[in-house]
Design a protein that fits this description.
Elements (H helix, E strand, L loop, with lengths): L1 H19 L8 H45 L15 E15 L13 E15 L4 E11 L16 E9 L7 E9 L14 H4 L3 E10 L4 E11 L11 E10 L8 E11 L4 E13 L4 E15 L2 E15 L8 E9 L9 E2 L14 H4 L32 E13 L2 E11 L10 E13 L4 E12 L10 E11 L1
Parallel strand pairs: 12-14
Antiparallel strand pairs: 1-2, 1-19, 2-3, 3-4, 4-5, 5-6, 6-7, 7-8, 8-9, 9-10, 10-11, 11-12, 12-13, 13-15, 15-16, 16-17, 17-18, 18-19
Helix pairs in contact: 1-2
C-alpha cells in the first residue's frame, strides 16, 4: 500500500508543471486553486486509506505477539519415541559340524562292516525368545541333526527333518505367588544328569526334550522346590492296550546347606510306563561343593522302589561319586579327578524281584558316546552277551539302558595355553551281576579331548575313545573306537 501511495503522489507532482503551463483560459489562479483542492482531496483519501491499513497490520501484529508469548509460556510437549517391536525379541542359534570315524561301535566284530562308519554329522538350531511383559515370556527352538545325505539308520537323523526342539512359556510369580512356571517342551537337567537329563534322545541324542510343566516354588533366596510332570512318549490313542510313559515328582534344591555349606539336592521322582506295567519311585540325594583351595566334589545316590513290571517288584540302587583338585596357582590350572559310578544288576532274572537299576532319565551319553552305543535297547546290542535281560524293562527303542555295572574313572585336564584345553581319562568297567558264567570284566575305556576356543562364539575340538573289550564278551571280541573333529559356532 505504501508503494501504491508513492506512485500516485509522484504522478500528481509531475502533473503540476504541465497544468501550470497550459495555454488556456483556465490558467487563472482560480483554476489552479481548484486543481490544488482536487489534489489535496486525493492525497487525503490515500492517507486515510493508508492509516486504515496500518491499523489493521498493527492489530494483526499484536495478535501474533500474543500467540507467540502464549506458546512460549506453555510447557513443552513431551517427545515420544516410537517403541520398536523388536526390543522384546532375542534370536540365536547353533551351527555344528562333526566328522566321525566309528569302528565296531555296535558289535565288537572286525568282520562286520555295518557299524564301521566314516560320516559327517550336522546340527543346526535357531531359537527365538520374546518378552510379552516383565513376568511373561516365550521361547521356541527349531533344530535338525543328521548323519548326512543317504543315512537311513533312524528317522530322527534325516537331513530334511526340522523339528520343534523346545517350545515353552515362562511365567514369573504366577497368581502373585512366589511360584514360577515353565509350560511346554523343554530340556530338564539337574546335577550331573545322573537321573534327569535325557528326554527324546533316541538314536544318538538327536534331542533331549520332555513335554510338560515345571512349577518352581521359591521358598526363600536359598531354597527352591520344583514340581515336575512330563510325558516321555505319547502312545497312539487307537491302541487301547498301551498308554503313555510319564515322569513326575518333586526336586528340592538348597544352594547352601546350613549344616555343611554344600549345595544340597533332594528328590522323589516317579516313572510310569503302562506298556510294561512299570511304576517306579526313586528317592535320592546329591551334595556338591567347590572350595577356594581347589578341591571339589559331587556325591549322589538313589534307591528305587515300586513295580518294575507287572508282578515284578523293583528294589534297586545306584550312585555316582566324583572328586577333583585344581592347582589354582599354576598357570595351566591343571585338575586331577577321580570318580566311581555304580548301577545295580538283577541277581536272579527268573524271580519276581528286580534289582536292576532303571536308567530313568539319565540315558544321555554321560559316560561317553562309546559306552552309550553298547547299551542301546536294540536287538543286536552287545550288552546281551553277558546280560541277556539288560533291556527287558525298557519299552523305548534305542534308549540307553544303563544298568548292571560299576565304572571307575581317573583323569586329568589342563589349559595348555591360551584358549587351548585338554582332558584325558581312563575307566575300568565291570559288571555287578553276570549270567551264564560270563566274566565281569566289561572293558577298559580310554578317552581324550582337545579343545580350542577360537572366540567366545566359535570353538574347535577333537575327541577320541577306545573301548578295549574285556572278557565279558568272550575271547573273540574286538575293540571299538570313536574319533571325531568338531567345529561349533553359537550365536
Amino acid at each position: 500500500m505504501i508503494k501504491k501511495f508513492s506512485v500516485v503522489a509522484l504522478a500528481g507532482l509531475l502533473a503540476l508543471p504541465v497544468l501550470a503551463s497550459a495555454g488556456t483560459k483556465d490558467t487563472s489562479i482560480e483554476a489552479l486553486e481548484r486543481q490544488m483542492q482536487e489534489m489535496t482531496q486525493m492525497f487525503n483519501s490515500q492517507i486515510n486509506a493508508l492509516k486504515s491499513e496500518i491499523a489493521d497490520l498493527k492489530d494483526k501484529d499484536d495478535q501474533i505477539s500474543k500467540d507467540v508469548s502464549a506458546a512460549a509460556a506453555a510447557p513443552a510437549a513431551p517427545v515420544v519415541a516410537a517403541a520398536s517391536w523388536t526390543d522384546s525379541f532375542k534370536i540365536g542359534g547353533q551351527v555344528r559340524m562333526r566328522g566321525y570315524n566309528l569302528q565296531n561301535f555296535l558289535d565288537l566284530d572286525d568282520d562286520g562292516d555295518g557299524d564301521n562308519w566314516d560320516v559327517f554329522r550336522h546340527k543346526t538350531s535357531i531359537w527365538l525368545s520374546a518378552d510379552a511383559s516383565e513376568k511373561v515370556s516365550g521361547y521356541v527352538k527349531l533344530s535338525n541333526q543328521n548323519y548326512g545325505e543317504g543315512i537311513t539308520f533312524a528317522d530322527d537323523n534325516n537331513s530334511n527333518k526340522v523339528f520343534v526342539d523346545n517350545a515353552y512359556i515362562d511365567v514369573k510369580d504366577m497368581f502373585d505367588l512366589p511360584i514360577d512356571a515353565r509350560i511346554g517342551r523343554q530340556n530338564v537337567m539337574y546335577g550331573t544328569g545322573f537321573v534327569l537329563f535325557d528326554g527324546q534322545s533316541q538314536f544318538a541324542s538327536t534331542s533331549i526334550y520332555l513335554d510338560g510343566v515345571k512349577l518352581s516354588w521359591k521358598i526363600n533366596d536359598n531354597v527352591t522346590l520344583d514340581g515336575l510332570y512330563f510325558k516321555d512318549e505319547e502312545i497312539e490313542r487307537a491302541n487301547t492296550d498301551q498308554d503313555d510313559i510319564t515322569v513326575g515328582g518333586a526336586y528340592l534344591t538348597a544352594k547352601e546347606c546350613p549344616f555343611t555349606g554344600a549345595k544340597s539336592e533332594l528328590y522323589a521322582l516317579n516313572r510310569h510306563d503302562e506298556t510294561l506295567g512299570k511304576d517306579i519311585w526313586m528317592y535320592g540325594l546329591r551334595l556338591s561343593d567347590k572350595f577356594e583351595s581347589g578341591f571339589d566334589y559331587s556325591l549322589e545316590g538313589a534307591i528305587q522302589k515300586g513295580d518294575a513290571a507287572e508282578d515284578v517288584d523293583q528294589d534297586a540302587f545306584g550312585y555316582k561319586l566324583g572328586a577333583g583338585y585344581t592347582f589354582t596357582k599354576a598357570d595351566m590350572k591343571p585338575r586331577v579327578y577321580v570318580g566311581y559310578s555304580f548301577l545295580s544288576g538283577d541277581e536272579d532274572p527268573t524271580d519276581d524281584d528286580s534289582e536292576r537299576w532303571d536308567t530313568f532319565y539319565g540315558g544321555w551319553p554321560q559316560f561317553g558316546d562309546i559306552v552309550a552305543w553298547k547299551f542301546l535297547n536294540l536287538p543286536n546290542a552287545i550288552a546281551n552277551t553277558y546280560d541277556p535281560t539288560f533291556s527287558e524293562l525298557s519299552s523305548t527303542t534305542a534308549e540307553a539302558v544303563y544298568s548292571n555295572f560299576g565304572l571307575f574313572t581317573i583323569g586329568a585336564s589342563a589349559n595348555l595355553f591360551k584358549n587351548f584345553s585338554a582332558d584325558i581319562s581312563y575307566s575300568l568297567m565291570t559288571a555287578d551281576e553276570t549270567q551264564n558264567g560270563f566274566d565281569d570284566d566289561i572293558a577298559d575305556i580310554y578317552q581324550a579331548t582337545l579343545k580350542y576356543q577360537y572366540s567366545d562364539k566359535l570353538s574347535f575340538s577333537v575327541y577320541g575313545a577306545l573301548f578295549d573289550a574285556g572278557d565279558a564278551f568272550g575271547d573273540d571280541a574286538d575293540n571299538a573306537t570313536e574319533v571325531f573333529w568338531e567345529a561349533n559356532y553359537m550365536f
